Amino acid sequence: MALARAQSAAYVGIQAYPVTVETDVANGLPQFNVVGLPDASVKESRERVRSAIKNSGLPFPGDKITINLAPADVKKEGPSFDLPIAVSLLAASGVIPEEALRNFIFMGELALDGSLRPFKGALVLAQGLKDQGTLIFPQENAREAALENKVAVYGMRSLSEVVQFLLKEKILSPEPTATLPVPPAVFSGLDFSEVKGQPLAKRALEIAVAGGHNLVFIGPPGAGKTMLAARIPTIMPPLSTEESIEVMKVYSVAGLMEKRGLSALPPFRSPHYSISPPALIGGGSWPKPGEISLAHRGVLFLDEMPEFRKDVLESLRSPLEEGWIWISRTKLQTGFPCRFLLIAAMNPCPCGFLTDPQKTCRCASPQIQKYQARISGPILDRIDLHVEVPAVSYQTLTQETAEESSAVIRERILRCRQIQHKRFADMPLKLNVWMRSREIKRYATPSAEGQKLLEAAMKRLHFSARAYYKILKLGRTIADLAGSPVVEAAHIAEAVQYRSLDRQRWG
């Protein structure tokens, strides 16, 4: 009879916690039991571990085996406990000295031949357990985990290699610290120079990206709304190392790191309008991040916004204000970050030609009202810029005038972001959009003429209190783009025009 322990880990949301795998091998009829609130995939590890040990040429005990995953009151999910179960079982059987397992944390799924397969959440575990010991992960997870430079990570290819390493029969070096590639200064492919006309829409996008302000485009089909949105990544500033790791942690627990890769580029997500609320905001019996979290520090583009289900759009209210989504279940509550730039596009009516001077709208007034009512006042109120995108004329499409490139626009945005970062150096949030009342009063109070102009606009257009503060934030970003330390009347006037489709004038 023997008892052995191996250290492992699990995560809830993007928070990691240690798990101790206790193995008891006792005399009795052959049994293999796993306890400690395992889910189905953890229970199935019994067969994977049995086959992996035998096919690796290692002895498998024919006694009563009991595996306990502690703490026993927290549900364990996923196949990543295969490796710690296997090494603790080998230690309890005397194949590996139990002392050899100390100061190591094991994670990994086992194939039936004993090879190691990657698992979700490697970066989250590496960050959460950097003070707990040295990590032994599958080779495919090692580079991701090595982004955390305060912990040693060993990438292994098979169970037999792990055993040889623990027995000191094979000498390995830890994975070198991973670094993020520098994003290109000029992107190949899409570029704003390809967009003919639409100066107001381009200006609005520049302001939106510079200050992190949400934006909605309204215009007829073919006006260029989707074309403009698709080029937003070419003017987005690169993420800092800290921001990149935040994003990659979300992608890691979602199992999308292979698609994301190690990158400092802001994410760009464009879900289809048939998406469900859990897929958008996150959810499931074991909560997983949704599209809003996958767009963290990047862009969430909702094309054909009125076609999204109403409950889907309404679920955006809190995330747009707080930048964080909490998901509550019976036995747990977890959260995911979701500070994203919302870009939406829609037609003005069901047929799309309400504002097109060249085509006649055939929609009845009740149809138009019903269509526009799909975007509720509270959602529209949370979108900073409402921009009409008119149809492009033949003359504009065929003109040879050179349009501004993405690189030129991006350079102005970078200068504006630098001003904001210097202004908010002592704050965790570095963009004007996240200013609170105190910062707005300190940094965004307009000049005397600007205050008079804003007062007149509030009385005439019946803006809400939320719209009032959004105008001030917009004015601050416009002033930063102009290099002005004071928010002047001209900056307020431009900000007000971007609220022209507020709900008091909707339709």
Describe the structure.
The protein has 507 residues and is an alpha/beta fold. Helices cover 37% and strands 16% of the residues. It is built from 22 helices and 16 strands. The strands form 5 sheets. A 5-stranded parallel beta sheet has the order 11-12-15-10-16. A hairpin with a 4-residue loop joins strand 13 (324-328) and strand 14 (333-337). The radius of gyration is 28 Å and the shape is elongated.
What's the total count of β strands?
16
CATH topology of the largest domain: Rossmann fold
* Parts with pLDDT < 50 across at least 5 consecutive residues: 503-507
Radius of gyration: 28 Å
> CATH superfamily of the largest domain, called what?
P-loop containing nucleotide triphosphate hydrolases
Top CATH class of the largest domain:
Alpha Beta
Strand content: 15-25%
What average pLDDT do the residues reach? Answer: 90
Helix content: 25-40%
What is this structure's SSE topology?
Blueprint: E1 2-12, E2 15-26, E3 31-35, H1 40-43, H2 45-55, E4 64-70, H3 82-92, E5 104-106, E6 109-110, E7 116-117, H4 122-128, E8 134-138, H5 139-145, E9 153-156, H6 159-166, H7 199-211, E10 215-218, H8 225-230, H9 241-253, H10 257-260, E11 268-269, H11 277-281, H12 291-294, E12 299-302, H13 310-314, H14 317-322, E13 324-328, E14 333-337, E15 341-346, H15 365-372, H16 377-381, E16 385-388, H17 394-398, H18 406-423, H19 437-443, H20 448-461, H21 465-481, H22 489-497
Parallel strand pairs: 3-4, 5-8, 8-9, 10-15, 10-16, 11-12, 12-15
Antiparallel strand pairs: 1-2, 2-4, 6-7, 13-14
Helix pairs in contact: 2-3, 4-5, 7-18, 20-22, 21-22
